[in-house]
Amino acid sequence: MGHTRSHFWFVSPAVILMFVILILPIFVAATFSFTDYNLGSTDFKWIGWKNYESLGKFSSYSKMFTASLTYVVIVVPVSVLLGLGSAMLISSLRFGGELYKAIFFLPVMATLLAMAYAWEFALDPVMGVINKVLDDGCSVGWFYKFFTGSWLGFNPTESWYGGICSDRMPNWLGNKKYALGSISFIGIWQAFGFNMVLYLAGLTSIPRDLYAAAEIDGANSTWEKFKLVTWPMLGPTHVFVVTITSIRSFQVFDTVEALTRGGPSKSTYMMVYAMYEKGVKQNLIGMGSTLTIVFLGFVLVLTMTQVYFINRKVHYS
Amino acid sequence: MAEIQLKGISKSFDDNKVIKSLDLSIANGEFITVLGPSGCGKSTLLRIIAGLESQSSGDVIIDGREVNNVRASERDLAMVFQSYALYPHLSVQQNLMVPLKLRRLSRLERFPLLNWFLPKRSSKMIELNEKVLQAAETLQITHLMERKPGQLSGGQQQRVAVGRAMVREPVAFLMDEPLSNLDAALRVHMRAEISELHRKLKTTFVYVTHDQAEALTMSDRMAVMMDGEILQHDTPSEIYNNPVNLQVAEFIGSPKINVLPAESDSKGGITCMGLPISLSMKTPKQGSIMLGFRPEHTELLSSNSNNCFEGKITYKENLGSDIYLHVNLKEDQHKMIVRSEPDKALDAKIGDMVKIGWMVDKVMAFERNGQSLPTKSKS
Predict the structure, then answer these.
(1) Residues 99-138 of B with CB under 8 A from A
(2) Is ipTM > 0.85 here?
């Protein structure tokens, strides 16, 4: 090998492509994050850590972190547990499982942007089907009783549903109180089908003998078997599902762009939307780059945690 | 300890009848082997006894109690699986602890965190730890207690699986081909260990295998099972020496028994391929029958012998302690395998003509349909 250099020629296309496409952009972004560069302007100034300092200074950025983290904290556990639950229900079916899989997977396959517009119609405060149902429900006795909790002995007018019946129907996307919840709901609706498919794959890889052994050992309820076999045997799947869902939740953009544009009063101002707003809409490349680097940091931490867990905790060999 | 009775058990999967009306009774403390080729329904039978599978008809009776509707966890049986089925996320110690915890601790005592405040729990745990340690000592796995199953060799995993079955002192052990994932040397070793364990525990063992060496060496009695039926249920020596039919005779014994066509006359005398065999039938009947010669009951004779089979060697297997010669019998399509002492057959070469004799009191006679025929040797 030593006297020829041909091996460098063989690996160079791959190395150069990898560098140019994957690594260089990160360095460029990191460099821009220390400047005040605006797209179109001919020069820029080095401003050191100022962009990063402004993340702590302006309330819109602290609202951004709150919105993003809240979204992740709501969407990840709910969509993961829903995914696991539906996967377990579907895998216990004798027939019809394929149909349920297809139905729950539909939101994953559909374009989220298009689906977001469909949700916008449904959530419209005046014409939306959701408020229509809620509004009509106010005059239906059992419906009213059920949702106000008066069948449990609560005072109907003090309940949330009683309140909107006597006042007016909620503005799901325009009200600060509901907007992040609505966006999160759509996020869960979209993500859990994907988690379900991952869990279904995880469930089929559990050896049947383990359930038989658990039964023989005295695990006579479904809950005992779940605790002893299903949950721990899904260890690698849990880590993968949680990481993927977290990263995808941090990346949420389509629904915010289509439905709220970060509002009302920045309550749904997510990180990727902020990146887009600063870097693309306002041409503030310096600030956009800063957000990108911070975002990368979040994702990196998540991925590192996954690697740590996979190596240490959940691969049992 | 328990006696297990199966009455008229049958099992179908859809249209496929895996077990056809089967009766078996297993005495208290007995080591019984269910031996059969793969796909004969023996594992299904074991799972029916365990309660993991429900029979299509018939009764399972354990210690006089009909348990048809009792679920597996309530039957108090232990099972060792071919795959061992250890919980991979738990250490050896925790694996051994699982059946004890699930059976001896109440639901509340198993509840995380809350259980620290229950007064009786810690004394119970000490007692259970004691039991786990005892089982581990019996199986010599105390040095492995902190490891996970993935860090153990096949033989060690096997021991842990036996240990997990042993700790809670079940009324019977069910073993589903527990040795078939081990290498040959370890298999022979574990065979002895499991027999030893049976002598020590004096509990009923039901052992399913397709390996006749395991069945013959370990069991008090064995049940030969084929196509969902038990063909013969007896001691290993009885099954080897007096198989009820040709199927059993061909399945037990390695290499396989040689079967040659023969004629019987009205007086009960037997001739095989023109040679008079000094053997007669207890109930004389004229007709064509079949004779079985086990390779180990035949021998090479010197070239000047007469009244013997003659043939050409086609293949020679030297096992060190024995030599097996495959012989094509003269003027015929029939083949025969002959066992020989190494020094007698050392010079024999492929293509040589040899003469073959037989031990007359070991020859077995069968009807054309395979049923065994009682014979006596003419003296």
Answers:
(1) 99, 102-103
(2) no
